[in-house]
Write a structure and sequence with these properties.
Strand order of the largest sheet: 2-3-4-1-5
Number of strands: 5
Order of helices and strands: HEHHEHEHEHEHHHHHHHHH
Number of helices: 15
Distance between the termini: 51 Å
Helix content: 40-55%
Structural class: alpha/beta
Amino acid sequence: MHGFESIIGQKQPVRILATLLQRDTVPHAMLFCGIDSAGKKAAAMTFAMSSNCLNRPVETFQPVPPPALAGDGSFDAVNPCGDCRSCRKILSDNHPDILDVSPSGAIIRIAQIRALSESLSMKPYEARRRFVIISEAQALNPEAGNALLKLLEEPPDRTIFILLAAQASDLLPTIASRCQHVHFYPLPRKELQALLMEKENLSADDAAVIAVLANGDYAKALGFSKPFKGTDWHHWRNWLLDASGLKQPSSLSQRPIGLKLMFAEQLAAGREILPDALEVLKAWLRDLVIFKFCPEKIINSDLTDTIRDVSQSESVPTLIQKIEAIQTAQKSIRANSNARLTLEAMMLKMGC
C-alpha cells in the first residue's frame, strides 16, 4: 500500500494531514514528532506524493470539514494514485523535488544545509510542491540549525519543509515555533495486540507479551514476531536468558568471566537487533521484581511459573542493580559508544 491507510495506528495525525490536503492549506513547515517507528517518514512521503500526484489536480480540492474526511476509513479523496509519473518517481526515491536530509554520522552538519540552500535557490524542476524531509532533525548541530532557521524564515517558493524528530523540545525553540506540529503516538497496547493477531496470526498470549515488550512500537513488534535466525522469538528469548546467565541472576557472579565476555561479543555482533535484546533482558529482570508485589502485571506472562520460582530467590536491590547496568549500556550505545566494550562492561557489572 502507498496511501494513508498504510500508516498503521495513526488515525489522528493522518486525519490532520488529510484535512490540510483536502482544504489545500498546507503550511510551509511541519514538525512530525513521535517515536522512531511511528510512521513519520512514511507519512511525510505519502503527503509529498499526494501533494504532487498528477491524478489529483489542484482544482479538485474541496474545503470539506475534518469530520467528513475518512468517515468510513477511506482516504480516497486525498490518497495518491501511486501510478502516475510523479508518484512512481517518489516511490522509487527518484524525484528531483523530494529532498531528503539525514544525519552524516551522528549529526546534521552545516555543509548539508548549505548544499540544501543552494539547491533551493533554483525553482522546482517539475513538482507542484517541492518537499524537504529532514530525518532526525534533533541531530542538527547549532550551526546547521541556525542555517535552517534562515530557510524557514524566508521559505523558497512552493517548498514545504517536514522535520522528523522524537520530540519538539529536542530542536531549537526558534525552529520548532516556525513549524506546525503533528504528533504521532505509540499504539495502545490492546490495539497493537489486535494488529499482531490479525496481521501476523499470533496467538492472543504471544501478541500480548510482544505488545508490552514493543511499548507501542509497531515496527519493533514486527521484529519480535518474525523468525530470528531460523527460529522464533520465544527461542531467541530463551537463548538470551540462558546465554546471559540471567535465568538465575543470583548465580551470575559465579559464572566464568569468559562466558560473560563471549555473550557480550555475540550480542554486539547482532547490532541491528541489539536494542531489542537489551529490552528483553530488562523486561525479564523487571518481571522478577514486579512479581513480588503485583504478579498480575508481569510482561512475560507465558513464563509465570518460572518467574515465580526465580523471583523467590532473588533480592530486589540485586535485581535493580542489574536493571541499572542494562540501562547504562542502552544509554551509552545510543550515544554511539563501542558496542562490544559497553556490553562487556555491562556483563561484568551485572556479575559483581
